[in-house]
Design a protein that fits this description.
Layout: E1 15-19, H1 25-37, E2 53-57, H2 68-71, E3 73-77, E4 84-88, H3 89-95, H4 97-106, H5 113-119, E5 122-124, E6 138-139
Length: 150
């Protein structure tokens, strides 16, 4: 029996749409990262980009648990001495809600050129509208199966 390794032309990419309204940030990001990385594809090959495109709508309406809106911080540096800047999750959601999901997914992808290429297939929009209707995106199933009691 031969092991089949995917090549660039053998992968048939699909488009998926996810409504982030009321979804938990971490669980949502995990499912999106799996799809972008290609783990849901039967052609999954670790060193080849076999993932699908994901469109996220309603990014401004994600849910977080506990006091993360107040305690979780996002840091960036301007490049100048003393130029560290930080924002809370609540402030970041008010200013750039798309970046919250993008940064959460980015942390779950490989830290190399393959991960950067996979992140370009993520399209995030704050509101319910998106310009990818021509690609006919299908809804992505996020919920996990319930555990069967032993």
């Amino acid at each position: 029996m031969k092991t089949v390794s995917a090549k660039a032309g053998t992968v048939d990419r699909q488009w998926w749409v996810v409504d982030a309204d009321g979804k938990n940030l971490g669980r949502l990001s995990t499912s999106i990262a799996e799809t972008l990385h290609g783990k849901r594809s039967p052609w999954f090959t670790r060193h080849v980009d076999t993932g699908d495109f994901v469109v996220v709508v309603n990014a401004e309406r994600i849910a977080v648990t506990g006091s993360k809106l107040r305690d979780k911080r996002y840091y960036r540096h301007t490049g100048y001495p003393g130029g560290i800047r930080s924002r809370t999750l609540g402030e970041q959601l008010a200013l750039h809600p798309e970046e919250v999901i993008r940064m959460a997914v980015r942390g779950m992808l490989p830290k190399n050129r393959l991960g950067r290429k996979q992140l370009t297939k993520l399209k995030v929009y704050a509101g319910p509208e998106h310009p990818h209707g021509a690609q006919n995106p299908q809804p992505l199933r996020i919920e996990r199966k319930a555990k069967v009691p032993a």
